[in-house]
Each structure stands twice: as C-alpha cells, then as structure tokens.
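Inputs:
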Amino acid sequence: MASRFDELIDRKNTGSVKYDLAAILGMPEDILPLWVADMDFKSPDCVVEALIKRCRSGVFGYSDSGPDYFDALKTWFANEHCFMVEPDWLVKTPGVVYAVNIAIRSLTFESEGVLIQEPVYYPFAEAIRNNNRKLSVSELCYKNGRYSIDFKDFEEKILNDNVRMFILCSPHNPVGRVWTRDELLEVGEICHKHGVIVVSDEIHMDFVFPGHKHLVFSSVKPEFMQNTIICTAPTKTFNLAGLQVSNIFIPNKDLRRAYKNELSKSGHSQIGIMALTACKAAYLGGKQWLAELNEYLLDNLNFMCDFLHTEIPEVKPVAPEGTYLVWLDFNELLLSEEALEELIVKKARLWLDKGTMFGKGGSGFQRVNIACPRVILEEALSRLKKTIRG
Ligand SMILES: Cc1ncc(COP(=O)(O)O)c(C=O)c1O
C-alpha cells in the first residue's frame, strides 16, 4: 500500500540547502543528495493548516508564545518521554546549534575545556573552537560493529583538559546509538563528580527504532537535573528546520540566569511567529503522523540493510538504534579518503556526508540520510552498487 511518505516532492528551486546548493558547492549537477539532516517529506497537515491560518490573519507584528505553547510542549514531553517540564525552565532559541553556542559562552571560560565524543555532529567542535574554548575529545570505541563509551578515557579527558562542559549527543548523530540508562548514569555520575555541566542535545529523541528507548538525560537521576541543559526541538521530528525554533530546558536557576543573559547579549529576543505556530501545532496534532513516519523509516532502514547485505556486503551499516541518519562503514574497500570521496561523489554521484567531517574516527565512513521516499533510496543504492561492482 502506498504511503504518504512515498510522494516525490520536487524540492529544487525552493531555496533548499540539500537540493539547491550542489552547483555552488562544486558538486556534479546530477548528484543525488542524501546528506543534510532534513527530510524529503511534507510536514503534518495540522502544521501546514495552522501556518496557512496564521498567514491569513495578514498581521505579523512582534509576537511571543503564550501558556498554550508551553502546555503543548509539556503534554508532548510528558506523554512521549516521561519528561515533566516546568514553565520557568523553558528558554526558546532559534535552533539547537545556536543554543549550544550560547551555553558555551555563558557557562564556561576561555581557559576551560568542552568535551565531546567523536565521531559526532560537527557543529559541536566548530562551536567550541569558534568560542575559543579548548576542544576536548573522548573518542567513542568501535568494536564488532557497535559504538560504546570508554568511561576511563572520558574521565581522564575531564581531568586533563580542565573540562567544564560536556556536550552529549543523545540519540547520537552520526553513529545512531540510543544510550542506555546505565551508560547515561555512568556519564552523568562522572560529570556530577567533577562539576561538569552537561549540555544534552536530544534533537533526535523522537526517532528511536524498536527495541530501544530514549531517556531524557536529566530524568536518569534527580541529581543530574541541576547541572543539565536539555536541548529539544520540533524541527527534526516534524521537518521544520527552515522555521528555526528550539526549546531548551534549564532547571537550575543560576545556570538559566547566566544563559538568558548571554542570549540577550547576542541580540536575540523573540522566535518568529511562524516557528511558534508550527511548533505548537506539531506537538498538539502530529503524533499519528510521527508514528507512521517512524514505520516508514524502519522499512527504509530494513530495505537498505537487506540491499547492502545481499548486493554490496563490503559496505556495512552500523546498526542504527535511533535517528534517520545511518553510518556506513566502507573500510573493507580499503580505499584512501580521497579515493572513497571520488567513488561516492564523482562516480556514484551521491552526496552523503563524509565521515571525517565528524572527527578523525570517521575515516572510512559516510553518513547517509534515509528520510526520503523509497525510490530515492533505491536509486542511491543502485548507483552505489553499479559503481562498486563496476
Ligand atoms: C545532533 C544535532 N543537533 C543539532 C542539529 C541542528 O539543530 P538546529 O537546526 O536546531 O540548529 C542537528 C541537525 O542535523 C543535529 O543532528
């Protein structure tokens, strides 16, 4: 049976970063983009309708959210993630990357280190470097096709690099891990012991495959609440990245005061009214749509894994537990970084994200975005097979 997510939407000439930047960035014209983390799907009807209704009012003066906005968030996080939020904790920012930058500037000094677990979403390292903090890296361990945390190294990095903040990616982009309670507990306890603030980027929290469960970091142990900043957003979940809104929860009032102070110094005041409208509508009415989407993504994932297994077994997907980004291991092909890039971009004409963007541990890997209609994924895999077999 056809799914609404099978619809092919022409995103060219819409200002899409994914589809309209190829020529500008020196990519072949006919490249198939499966890189940046947005989806080739329409947002839920409830969102589109709410935006049209708001548009029809024709008045777009300075606006902010009311209690109904917070109620929509509160219900979503309580029902979907057993995460009970309070109105005071909420700070809205125009994106999670923006929020991470503000956290670094407001809660650490230039002499202090900020820790990340590579391979990881590359704007974290950029934010640390751009704000002149010391970049501290604890590499994730890759063994038997799965990533895990080296807790000893994690603690040593905190001590050796004068670490004051840790940026957790949960679920983890790009390696697709959904961290277990034990892992979060151990990480949290180490951070708590050394007075390290945890910025927990949970933007992918609504994409978890069967058999796994996302746990909001601060709900793992009550003590974690006071040194944690939880970053959430409706933008990945409901494909609203171009609207730019994120909801950051900071239970500790001193951290929140410092954070808001820095936000205000950056010149930020309100979030755009369209973003607020879409966010509220999505959290109120998007549950069924999301359930269908997650089924579709699971089918895409299974389709891709089966295809690789039978047709190109040298390319190994790192079993994803969450997110719609899959980390592909090309190391069996024994290619240099340049040769792998040439194979993917020039020969297969696929635009993925090359592994080394996420840290040196990403060598030999590529990240693929499977949030697209099945035919696009089929085309991508067939191009890859033809190139590797050819
Ligand atoms: C882990 C992670 N954090 C943040 C973002 C971007 O968030 P925003 O667009 O709200 O800045 C992404 C997008 O891919 C992501 O994967």
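Residues 287-311 form the longest helix (25 residues). Flag for discussion at group meeting.
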